[in-house]
Amino acid sequence: MTITVRFAPSPTGQIHIGNARTALFNWLFALKNDGRFILRFDDTDRERSRKEYADQIEEDLAWLGIRPDYVCRQSDRFDLYEQAVEKLKAAGVLYPCYETPEELERRRKIRLSRRLPPIYGREALKLTDEQRRAYEAEGRKPHWRFLLPNFDTDPFEPQRTEVHWNDLVRGPQTVDLASMSDPILVREDGTFLYTLPSVVDDIDLGITHIIRGDDHVTNTGAQIALFRALGAEPPAFGHHNLLTTSTGEGLSKRTGALSIRSLREQGIEPMAVASLAVLIGTSSAVEACPTMEALAERFDPASSSKSSAKFDPAELMVLSRALVQAMPFGEASDRLAALGIMGEKAETFWLAVRGNLDRVADATEWWTIVNDGPAAVGLSEEDRAFVRSAADLLPDEPWDEGTWRTWTSAVKAATGRKGRELFHPLRLALTGRDSGPELGLLLPLIGRERVLARLRA
Ligand code: GLU
């Protein structure tokens, strides 16, 4: 059987690094098991779901290196949910309820005051046909609840009914179906809540492993019961811990905070985001993995802790910088070309400057400096004279990485300057910067003619 996983975001906002964690746990699981990855948009909430968000999510995933084998939308699949509703009704496990939210709240308070668990008491199951007709005549429309299989013969006598699963992340789990209310599957207006479409799709799409955030643990018991009521064996489940900011706040799609898009716009490397999103809150040290394969090697869902994982966005920059500074030219070349950095010198240029960059895009500043010279050079009169005299000692071409040393040794011997006094004015004249890539590497890239012009300026 092909391992099949899915990432099922609702397209109601920008996905953030916490959502990326879920997507990546699934992607890496598929990668390691030669499995399939399905992107499913949970867009049954027509009010809040937007196509722009769905498109953005696909783009964000592609940027992270996630390429779904199949993409689908729940809004295209309503027929399947209707069929499932009919099946459940026919089996007598989906029943109409007419309570208003106020009535439910009143009952909940009464149960609490009697020290009873505040779960739904299945009062609607007791309604006679006549009472139902009376409600409908009043204009009330029913919502529909799934009758949990937590009783022997009498639904009003629920009994402890344990559902077990061996969670890929959390290990053996048990929930008691008698401790929860029959979930509402269909609202008064005929729209579906998340539970039924999700289970129907997981069956229809052949999902073998559901990996998602641990905010869904309590849903799992009822969902397992629903899989069975629909005649399917439930898949395996894994619930990973959630990410929070350093101050312990949860992340939200709606605020756009730490959205994948904003990280991308800040020039953070995708594998820095992926490495942090996957490795934080696990027993593995957070390190920048340069490829998805390298990250897959480190990925072990069972090593995630059970409590939420705090992360510091500043760490993203540290990881990103490490990736940029070690990035082979082959990997950077397309992006450099898009920045206008190409030609025969592009590779030596990249190898010369990468160690000084925070972001790949920052290479353009150095490309401009190498090719067009510094915008402004603040040299004292005395240093300017020194630099001019140094120009006369420039070796002839061809130049290589040793030219800088040959040249500066000659300048040192001729002028008596050494250390910072010797090097700093030359660096300033050539680059306009106090610091930067090794001049031994930059000098041949700038070339004799341009170096002379800068020294004699
Ligand atoms: N749309 C649900 C969510 O974003 C999916 C949960 C699941 O993976 O089952 O929370």
From TrEMBL:
Record's keyword terms, sorted: Aminoacyl-tRNA synthetase, ATP-binding, Cytoplasm, Ligase, Nucleotide-binding, Protein biosynthesis
Motif segment ('HIGH' region): 9-19
Keyword Membrane among UniProt keywords: no
Stretches assigned to the Glutamyl/glutaminyl-tRNA synthetase class Ib catalytic domain: 3-316
Its job: Catalyzes the attachment of glutamate to tRNA(Glu) in a two-step reaction: glutamate is first activated by ATP to form Glu-AMP and then transferred to the acceptor end of tRNA(Glu).
NCBIfam families in alphabetical order: gltX_bact
PANTHER family: GLUTAMATE--TRNA LIGASE (PTHR43311), GLUTAMATE--TRNA LIGASE, MITOCHONDRIAL-RELATED (PTHR43311:SF2)
Entry's Gene Ontology molecular function annotations: glutamate-tRNA ligase activity
Location of this chain's protein in the cell: Cytoplasm
Residues reported to bind ATP: K253
Family from the record: Belongs to the class-I aminoacyl-tRNA synthetase family. Glutamate--tRNA ligase type 1 subfamily.
Pfam families: Anticodon_2 (PF19269), tRNA-synt_1c (PF00749)
Motif ('KMSKS' region): 250-254
InterPro entries in the cross-refs: aa-tRNA-synth_I_cd-bd, aa-tRNA-synth_I_codon-bd_sub2, aa-tRNA-synth_I_CS, aa_tRNA-synth_I_cd-bd_sf, Glu-tRNA-ligase_bac/mito, Glu/Gln-tRNA-synth, Glu/Gln-tRNA-synth_Ib_cat-dom, GluQ/Sye
Quaternary context: Monomer.
EC supergroup of this enzyme: ligase
Record's protein name: Glutamate--tRNA ligase
Reaction(s) the record says it catalyses: tRNA(Glu) + L-glutamate + ATP = L-glutamyl-tRNA(Glu) + AMP + diphosphate
Domain of life from the UniProt record: Bacteria
EC number(s) recorded for this UniProt protein: 6.1.1.17
Organism expressing this protein natively: Chelativorans composti
Domain Aminoacyl-tRNA synthetase class I anticodon-binding: 380-456
